[in-house]
Each structure stands twice: as C-alpha cells, then as structure tokens.
Specification:
TIM Barrel; 308 residues; 2 domains
Amino acid sequence: MKNKKLILAWAIFLGAAAAFVVGVEIYGNFKKERSSGYRYRIPIDGDILPEQFMEKKEDLIPEKKTEDCRKDFYERTKYGYLPKISRSGARVFDEYSACSEITSGKKLRLAVVLSENDAANPANIDAGLNGQKVTFIVPHHCDRLDEVVKTVQKGGHEFFLKIPVQFPVSIGQNRTITPFLVNAEAGDTLSKLFRLLASTKYALGIANVSPTLLTKSAKDMAIIAEALAERGVAFFDFEDSNNLPKEVAEKTGLIFISAAAVFESDDFDLSKLQDGSVLMIRREHLPNLIKILPADWTLAPISAAAKR
C-alpha cells in the first residue's frame, strides 16, 4: 500500500514538473513570436505566409537610417510598415508617382492589371512598352512581390495594390486570401486594409478592378476613404459610372482616380477616348492595345489624372 502511494506521489510530482517545463517553453515561444512579429508580412486575412514573404534582414534596419524615414513617409505598426503623411505634409502618392515627360501628341493614361501568372515573371511585365511609363496594379499576395516592385520602379513606372473583393484567392499550401466583406465591423475592415497596405512599400494606393458591393456601400467606402486620406494614398476604381466613391472622396479629401473605360477585346474603339483619358487593361491584352494605338498617342501613368 505504501509503495502504491509512493508511486502515485512520484507520478503527480513528475507530471507537475513536466507541465511546468512545457508552460515555460510555450511562454518563451510566445514572447519570441511577439518580439519577431514585425519580420513577417501579414496577408489580408491574417493567415501565416510562406517563407518567401519574410522581411529581408536589411528591411529590419531602423527606419531612421533609411531615406524613407528621413522623409517620414512610413511608420512601423503591428501590421508592418504603413504609409503616412510626412511632417512636412508630403504624401506617398506624390513622392512615388511616375514622371512622364510627354511634350507632344495625345496621352492615354493606362492602368495595367497584373495576374498572379504575370507577377510570376517580373522581368517581363513591362515588355513591349518601349520606354513608355504606365501604372501597374499588382496582386499583393504574389510570391515574387519584391521583384515585381523593383521591376516597376526600375522601369520608371508606378503601382497600386489590387484589393481582393470577389472570391477567396488560393495562394497554395491550403492558404487563401479572403475578400473585403461588405458591412463588416469597422475594425475588421481597417485590419484588412492595413494588412494590404503593409504588404509592400511605395504603392500609390489600392485599386478596385472588378465588380463589387464594397464600392456601393457608403459605410465601407467612408471607412476606407478616411483611412487612405489620412495616410496620403489613393483609391482607383475601374467603374467610372459609380458615383459613390467620388462623392466619398470629395468629403474625405481622398485622392481618387477612375477609369473612363476598360479594354477587354481587340475591337475596342479608341476613338471614344479623349486626350488624358484613363484606360484599364489586363496585362494579357497589352500587346493588342499597342498594335492598334495611333502613332500620335503615347501611354502614360494614371496618377496625373487624380482628383485631389
């Protein structure tokens, strides 16, 4: 009987000791994760990203040592680096807009939407443009986002981040990017927005490129517009006929751009576009547009068409 009690006492002691060790290890891992949390980009739905989305070591240098921080365009948050208006009043939108020196002829301001397949080959995304500057709309969750951004900037272009608004998008390994939800809690909408903006630096703003109830919701557009305006970045909408984003932009001071038309087929009538019109096109159709573009027309970025 005494042996059984002794064995039971030892079992209880060893169990408690094991629980203590496990608890200490879990707490240590929790502290470690919190201290290293800024090293990871967070996807729009909060899932864990694959290793290629980890911040590089050089990106972890304190912001005060970088050119961006001297201009005070970014701040470090729990979401990652978010854009903000500098102390001098300068905005990310103005700082990173592409310059296009066109002195003659007509300008067609072009927004080129990249798919995940386009983004998988960053070196080819501006092939065929022959030095003409345009605006790219980039999927924030693509595996080679950093390379896409470098290609865009090296070519003298500018870019927006595409917002997921229709259906969940698979990014492999059982991970998905969920769309913005209409009439969600304000905190949820802002969380998705900030995670999107923190996916990379130098974006001029976010872009809606497909039909969605999000831009028809006064509540959601007000939340998004106020947050973007406060951070000095813009909103692009492919639907020029939808007046709600325009009205909200005017009330909040949001930088806003809309497309006059969308190029979807080879029989598109360019004659209905005026000098300086904004046209949205998917990357796969770009060679067709270049073929039919009149000789006196030049492609240009969309930023100069912004309503501020």
